[in-house]
Every structure is written in structure tokens, then in C-alpha cells.
Design goal:
With 155 residues, the chain is mainly α. It is 77% helix and 6% strand.
Length: 155
């Protein structure tokens, strides 16, 4: 920490020399001491206020988040007349109505498309395995000419 102290000796000496009981050395020391104390108080206050502000903001953020989550999970909202609904259910219902997005339908369509891809891949694998087995058996029984076998293997 760097402290810059500026003393105007001309003003100080004019006031001091008019007072007979005043000691110049003690006056300068007291003046410097007062300015240093004032500067330290200002700096300390700013640092303490900054630290406290930061801690309060963090605590408020956690408190607000916890309060909102508690309200979201356990709170109820008046839907119409005397009908109350959990906030979470209400928001999910509104989101589904407005976006036409439903978790159940999206998941089921995704699962269905994955199953279709997988069954198609299995069928292709089965077809290739079956064809390879047929070609192998024909070759083993010498029912397939060598030039035709080479042609089938290329494909």
C-alpha cells in the first residue's frame, strides 16, 4: 500500500508561528498521523464493505435458489376457481400445451426409430450371414463353379 502525503508548509508555518505554544515538529507529526489514520480508515472500510457485499450476494443467491426450488416442488397455484395444482405440474402442462412437445411422445418416437434402425441392421446382418452360408455350402458341395464363386465373393 502506497500512501502519498502532501503538506503545504507555507500555510502550516504561517498558522503555527502565530501560536507561541505550538511545536512545529509535533504539529507535522500529528498532521501526518491524522492523514494516515484517515486514509487507513477509508481503505479498511472499503475493503470490509466489499467483502461483506460479496458474502451477502452469495448468500442471497443461494437463499433465492433454494426458495424458488422449494416453491417449484411443493408450491401450489390456483388454476381456476377452487382448483389448485402443483406448480411443477402446471408449468409442465403449460409447456406441453404451448410447445406441442411432450416428453412421453418424444421418447417413444425416439425409441421407436432406434428399434427400427436396429431391426433393419439385424436383418441385413442375417441376410449376409445366410447368403455367406449358402455360398459356402454350395462351394463345399462343388455345386458352384470357381469363376462364379470369385464373382460372388467380389460383391
Amino acid at each position: 500500500m502506497v500512501l502519498k502525503v502532501e503538506i503545504d508548509l507555507e500555510d502550516l508555518t504561517q498558522d503555527l508561528f502565530n501560536d507561541e505554544d505550538y511545536n512545529l515538529k509535533q504539529g507535522v507529526i500529528d498532521s501526518i498521523r491524522g492523514q494516515v489514520v484517515s486514509q487507513i480508515k477509508t481503505n479498511c472500510r472499503e475493503q470490509i464493505e466489499s467483502t461483506i457485499r460479496c458474502l451477502v450476494e452469495q448468500k442471497m443467491g443461494v437463499l433465492i435458489r433454494e426458495t424458488f426450488l422449494e416453491w417449484y416442488k411443493n408450491g401450489e397455484i390456483n388454476v381456476s376457481g377452487n382448483e389448485y395444482m402443483k406448480v411443477q405440474e402446471y408449468l409442465e402442462k403449460r409447456f406441453t400445451e404451448q410447445s406441442k412437445f411432450s416428453y412421453d411422445t418424444t421418447v417413444s418416437s425416439h425409441v421407436k426409430s432406434e428399434v427400427e434402425k436396429f431391426t433393419k441392421e439385424l436383418k441385413n446382418r442375417y441376410d449376409l450371414s445366410f447368403a455367406a452360408l449358402v455360398v459356402k455350402n454350395l462351394a463345399d458341395q462343388k455345386l458352384l463353379a470357381d469363376d462364379k464363386l470369385a464373382e460372388l465373393v467380389k460383391k
